[in-house]
Amino acid sequence: MTQQRKPIVIANWKLNGGLDLICTSVASFIGKHFEAQIVICPPYIYMRDMMTFLQYSELQIGSQNVSKFKSGAYTGETSAQMLKQAGCALCLIGHSERRAMFAENNPGCRTKVQLALNHGLLPVLCIGETKEEREAGTAKEVIFTQLSEGLLDIDLTDKDICIAYEPVWAIGTGLAATPDMVQEIHRFIRDKLEALYNPTVAQRVRIVYGGSVNKTNAKELLNQEDIDGLLVGGASLDPDHFLEICKQANNVAQV
Ligand code: 13P
Question: Which residue's CA is minimally distant from atom 9 of ligand 1?
């Protein structure tokens, strides 16, 4: 992480949590100042409840997904505009679980990125290879395809996005990628952003890592030059554990 980019820690609760977790999570952040941006993505149904507590903390709310449609007859969907109105700061797009279980693809992700930008949400485009792809030596190819197709013709002149590198084999397995492995991929992503856009955009975009992040491996990951933050699943469901990870991001931000 470098001083130019503000670190960000995002909690992805997935299909977990409830009102009790909201209370304990927010409570542990009350009155604490963070140099890093801290965002929790609860299930949609809890966003409003969470929002009512947020005035007492610096926490922000994000969404785990966003519809690729603006409005209309799309049962069960939630639009970018609705998320913005609900107070969301960001939305995850193309998480590997959505790609694998809900048939999300790169063109669909691209549409979501554009809609999020149009409505003032920070899109967090999730990319990453499977175990088989890494073993076959095609990880970078897969990542480049997800990146270039997910951002196809997206103008980033004065818009902000975030890229989340989440190798599928590291998600929920307890087998985090090593800091060196992550740094190599993040540098690759930044180089590709420079090729697709320009050096200014490449230096501005935050690239975060997700996959079995915990309070033990967070610091070393955050110390890598091109790791600008963390996307935390399982460990974010324990408020004390998540707070500890956020403190580490804060320490790195203050150096
Ligand atoms: P885990 O931290 O549980 O591996 O999940 C990572 C993730 O998918 C965050 O989006």
Answer: 233
